[in-house]
Every structure is written in C-alpha cells, then in structure tokens.
Design a protein that fits this description.
Length: 419
C-alpha cells in the first residue's frame, strides 16, 4: 500500500481530474457550438465561470472530508438514508454517462479501419472495455499521467495552426436566433465538456495528503481544461466557416483540412480514440472508487469494499465495465449519434442536480460551522446555485424527468435495503 500511496500523489490526481473532463466533449464541441458563433464562445465563458465556481465548492467540501466524493457530503449534511440515494445516483450516472464516450471511441476506430458490421462493432467495444479494465486493475496512478499527457498535447499544439490560417472574421454573429436563446442553448452544450469536476474527491483514502492534494488537483485541473477548451474553440472557429463546421462529424479533421489541406480524417481519428479511451479509463476508475467508498459505509454490498494488491477497487471496476458493456448493447439499434444524444442529454441534467445539492451542502456546513465560512465561499454557493438553477431550467422536461428517475430508484432500493 505504501508504494501505491506514493503513486497517487498530486500529478496522478490532477491527471484524473483532467482525464474525466477532457473527453468526448472536447472532440465534438466546436461543431455543436459553431451555429452560435460569437454567442457560442461567450456561452463557454459563462459556463466555464460557473463550473470553476463549482470546482471551488468541491475543493472546499473536500478539505475536511473523507473518501467517496459527493455522497459523503450528503451524508454529513442529511444522514445515511439520503447518502445511500446520493451514492447510488452518482454511481449510476458516472458509468451510464461514460457509455457514449465508449461508443464514440469505437466509431472512430471504424473510421480509421473502414466500415464493419454490428457484430464487429460490439467486439471492438468489448475489447476496448477489457483492455481499460485490466489497466485500471493496477491502481489509480496507473497510466493516468501518460493518458492525460497524450490527450493534452494535441489540444496545446492545434491552436498554433490558427495563428497562421485563422481569422476572427470567420466567427460571426448569427442573425437567425436571439442572443439570449443562443446563449441558453449553447451553454447547455458547453456544460457537457466539464462534467466530472468532482471526480478527484472519490479516491481520497488512496491519495497522499488528501486534504491539500485534492483541492489543488480539482482547481488546477478544471482551470487547465477550461483554458484548453476556450483556446481550441476560438482556434477552430477562426479557421473553419460556421456552415462547414456545424455540418462536420469530425471538427478537428475539418480544421486541419481547411488550414493545411489534405485528408486528415484518419489522423484525427487516432487522436479522438486516445482522448475517448483515456476518458473512459478515468471514469471507470472513478465509478469503482465511488462504489468502494459506499461499500465501506455499508451502503453497497461488502464485496465492493475490496482492493487487490495494487489497491484497485477491482469489484467496482469490473462491475462498472460489465454494466457499461450491457448498456452499450441495448442501444445498438440506434445510430452512433442517437446513442450519444440519448445518454448525454439526461446525464447532464442529472449531474446538474447533484452539483446543486453539493452547493447547498457547502452552505449548510458553513452555517453549522463545520467548514470555515468566508465571503468568498458564500459567493461560491450563490454563483453555483444560480448557475445550476439556470441550466436546469433550460433543460427539456423529458431530461429532467429522466434525471429524477435515478434518485427515485435509489429511494425505492433504499426501502428494500432497510428491510
């Protein structure tokens, strides 16, 4: 265990925080935000500010807490029953929301190697899941820094292309939509790119000096991701006309084609595969850690409260991978785009509800004087609540209902659990 603790230091945790956020959203956001032009960029600044305030909320909550992430904050504020519902909900949305990233990774491999049948696509997804699971069974630090570096480097390099080929004149102000409506729609799209800001809080008991390491990793990681998103979004939109970008299935391939010529679809497919596989790896590990912590509190079956010789929560990791595979199979009757949209829309709303609850909890803990209060922290609570409330109000009713079904299932399951 000592060697493991040395590996799970600041850099490994920072890589985990970046890894869960820098995934599918990073590769598709330029296309999704292109129709909104200037308002798309402004919405990203608004969303980024709201997310950073939430990152600071989680940093404050983690200073005096234990492993497990959001559910332990609910337990401290509202007790064991509410904590079980929170633990169940967080575990469900963490792996369900990862399925579209896995699907997109497999789809990118199909683009790289040519078209294949549904059965081949299933085999590819299962193979990816198996390899990722085996890597995760070697612990938190295993591969996180390498995977994150491989994903971050292209996002650092790509913007330099725009210095030669880009022009801010290509970023237009759309005339067919009102500014307020454009900001509302674009902000919800941008939010998907930041989901997972709380992931660094889940493996607290396997992190060196967690009370200092976790807040630093959450804050620095979220700032890095926000900066990379903004710079890349402006770069791509400054090179590719809005019409061509909004219709592109691979915005970075289109970006390279417009700037340097040639067909870069396969090159970019490799980049997307690395980004998505690394993100899936981070999320499976996060889900396993969440299940492990809940089991230690006797909320999940005791089998989840086990670690192997590498201190990996192997039961949670394997279970999460199996459920993701089953979920992916259930969606095979839809196109890749439909599979992604089905899961993204309601998972984003579910995360917003969770983030809002955590902002409320920070206020409660300061009111009870269990966490040091300050004007800055009260401001974070206010901004976090305002941002989450606004974003939830912009969500579609079906997504709100779908998101509400997850904690409701936890309430029902909790009744049987107590019996």
């Amino acid at each position: 265990m000592k060697e493991y603790m040395q590996r799970a230091g600041f850099w490994s945790l920072l890589a985990l925080v970046i890894g869960v956020q820098l995934g599918l959203g990073a590769t598709i956001l330029p296309s999704n935000l292109a129709p909104y032009g200037v308002w798309g960029i402004l919405s990203f600044l608004i969303t980024g500010s709201g997310v950073i305030s939430l990152a600071l909320v989680f940093a404050a909550l983690s200073e005096n807490s234990r492993a497990g992430g959001p559910y332990v904050y609910v337990q401290d504020a509202f007790g064991d029953r509410a904590a079980f519902v929170a633990a169940w909900s967080y575990w469900i949305i963490s792996w369900v929301g990862t399925v579209p990233i896995l699907v997109f990774a497999a789809g990118s491999m199909e683009m790289l190697f040519g078209g294949w049948s549904t059965s081949t696509a299933i085999i590819v997804e299962i193979t990816i899941l198996t390899v990722i699971t085996l890597i995760n069974l070697t612990g938190v630090g295993a591969g996180e820094i390498i995977f994150s570096a491989a994903r971050v480097i292209p996002f650092v390099v790509f913007p330099f292309i725009a210095l030669k080929y880009g022009s801010l004149k290509n970023i237009e102000i759309p005339k067919d939509i009102s500014p307020m409506l454009a900001l509302n729609k674009a902000s919800l799209i941008a939010l998907w790119g930041f989901l997972g800001i709380e992931a660094g809080t889940t493996p607290a008991d396997t992190v060196e000096n967690p009370n200092k390491t976790i807040p630093r990793a959450i804050i620095y990681g979220t700032f890095i991701v926000a900066a990379l998103y903004i710079v890349n979004l402006v770069s791509v939109m400054s090179v590719v006309p809005a019409g061509a970008l909004s219709n592109s299935l691979s915005p970075y391939a289109t970006y390279l084609e417009y700037s340097m010529g040639g067909d870069y679809a396969k090159v970019v497919s490799v980049f997307i595969i690395i980004v998505c596989v690394g993100c899936v790896k981070s999320w499976i590990l996060t889900s396993g850690e969440a299940a492990y912590s809940a089991a230690q509190e006797q909320m999940f079956p005791s089998s989840f409260a086990k670690r192997n010789k590498f201190a990996s929560p192997y039961v949670g990791v394997i279970t999460t991978s199996v459920l993701m595979g089953i979920c992916g199979l259930m969606l095979k009757n839809n196109t890749i785009k439909e599979q992604i949209n089905i899961l993204i829309e309601f998972c984003s709303t579910a995360y917003l509800i969770l983030y809002m609850i955590c902002a409320v909890i920070l206020g409660i803990m300061m009111w009870r004087r269990k966490i040091a209060a300050s004007v800055m922290r009260w401001s974070l609570v206010t901004v976090g609540l305002a941002f989450c409330s606004w974003a939830i109000c912009m969500a579609r009713p079906r997504d709100i209902i779908g998101a509400a079904m997850i904690p409701l299932s936890g309430v029902v399951l909790g009744l049987f659990r107590r019996k």
